[in-house]
Amino acid sequence: MIFIDRTSVDIPEILADGSEKLKKELQEAIAHYADPNKRNKAFKFNVYSHADVKEALIKMGKGKCAYCESDILATYVGDIEHFRPKGEIEELKPTGNSKPGYYWLAADWDNLLFSCRNCNQKSKQATATVAEAKSMGKMNQFPLFDENQRVRSHEDDIEEEEKVRLLLNPCKENPEEYFKYDINSGVIKPKKRKEFLKQRALSSIKVFALQRVPLVMEREKKAILISAQMQRVEEAFINYNDFINDPERAEKFGKVLQREMETLQSFLDPKEEYLGLARQMIGKFMKKNFQVDITAA
Length: 297
Prior knowledge:
The protein is mostly helical. Helices cover 38% and strands 7% of the residues. It is built from 8 helices and 6 strands. Helix 6 packs antiparallel against helix 7 (247-265) and helix 6 (213-242) runs parallel beside helix 8 (275-290).
């Protein structure tokens, strides 16, 4: 999971301020949920599902899932995900008052992300830490550190709730400050030690199903590829240094080193899967061996 720059793309016209379709649907949704007889009935939202919206989200996230960083389009059309769920809030089911969700944010550009179905939808999945398959995936989950701060109306200030939001928003926080990866297993772990920050990382791992077995295995494969390439860079660097006083051989091995370094750097391409893992591994390698800080690049 990495930071996604929402400003890298323009807001789709249909979601922009002044959009008549957006304004009309929002007014209809507010009226729908203001009616006690309709409050538990789903409102049909259409504006957010416009093709231009999905296209912009795909471009913004480089075709990858906003949560797990897996490439989506090769095998699935992908979901337009509501960060704050529009229809229902799962955490409130025990109260009998789980509907509606954040209906006024259904077509809010800042509430939309591009996601894979394994992160976004409920399905039975096993995790790397628990062998038994359980129903997981975000769906209508939106946990808070303090449930008393939950916002239920378009008339209330969502910023107060933001202070107790547990799930990491990849467009607002930098997930790389919260997560670290076990390069031998592909398992994702919390990096922060302070309780609230650690809880945010743990909640995000659980709700987004970031520990599911196939995903962990893919990260492990990526780690193996990166490790092998780092070894090739080390070997090329040793060969170059061994012949530093032999201009002809030094030039030859210098080209090999450059080629191997470029291959290693290709893992840092923004379109690559599991960039958070790659940055962790390559960042540590470059700092240790070449005194280069890749975060400053």
